[in-house]
Task: structure prediction
Amino acid sequence: MDGKVIAIFNAKGGVGKTASATCLADALRERGEHVLLLDMDQQHNSTDLYGAEIEGRMSTYDLLTESGVDASEGVQSTESGDIVPGDVLIRRVDQDMDKITLGRETMLRDALAKVEGAYDRIVLDCPPTIGNAALNIFMAADRVIVPMNASGEGLSALSETLEFIGKVESNPRYNPGLEVVGVLVTLYIPGRRVSKAYDEQLPEIAERFGTRVLDTRIRFCTKYPEATTRQMTLFRYDPDCIAAQDYRAVAEEIVSKGLI
Ligand SMILES: Nc1ncnc2c1ncn2[C@@H]1O[C@H](COP(=O)(O)OP(=O)(O)OP(=O)(O)O)[C@@H](O)[C@H]1O
Ligand SMILES: [Mg+2]
Result:
């Protein structure tokens, strides 16, 4: 599959990365795909939603910091699907990766090499920071989806994110195959006016970096925080709620337009 490894990334926190990674993984599973979720975040929110274990288990921290690791050894099969868990240790990944002398930027890509064949799709729930982990993510990914809160804050973080991705994809030594699928508007409340600056600037920023704002917007849905409180994915808690419908629509949009 062309866009096998999909990173859900934005340098800003709280924009719906975890919601988008977990729900998109489920929407793709409903379409019959075999999907692996990778929790790349120290907050390990998607790991908790999957009820996966962290203590004493291989995590994405190990994939980033230990040479020769095979990610398939870290896969946990849960009721919600397959996942490699996140870990609080990821908070010190920058400092720990400084000690790696060879292949520091491709640690994740190398760790995924053996597991890739076993899945149709690998979805990455990413941390809200640009650093060594992010560089590894973009070296390993084929596609990036950038969630963006409809409230309109975070336009500068969006530019920073797209600029960084642009540097990775424009450098033949890095990852020329990397493509931004688009900006995905999340936490959208129909009828509520988003700021004019946001409305006008969002497509402009996306276009400046050679990408687009996806047509589908993810509506604000009270079921999402409810599901989180119960430590369940949204698709298990309420598969018919509006946000779940929207994530199915995004999956349809990006597959039918050939974006992944
Ligand atoms: N469609 C939605 N409707 C309502 N609330 C949502 C929706 N999507 C996400 N949320 C809520 O918005 C907040 C941010 O979402 P989420 O955790 O997915 O963002 P994030 O980008 O992963 O954050 P972080 O950078 O901290 O990892 C959370 O409190 C979550 O419960
Ligand atoms: Mg998150």
Summary: The longest helix spans residues 155-170. The mean pLDDT is 95. Residues 120 and 191 are 37 Å apart (CA to CA).
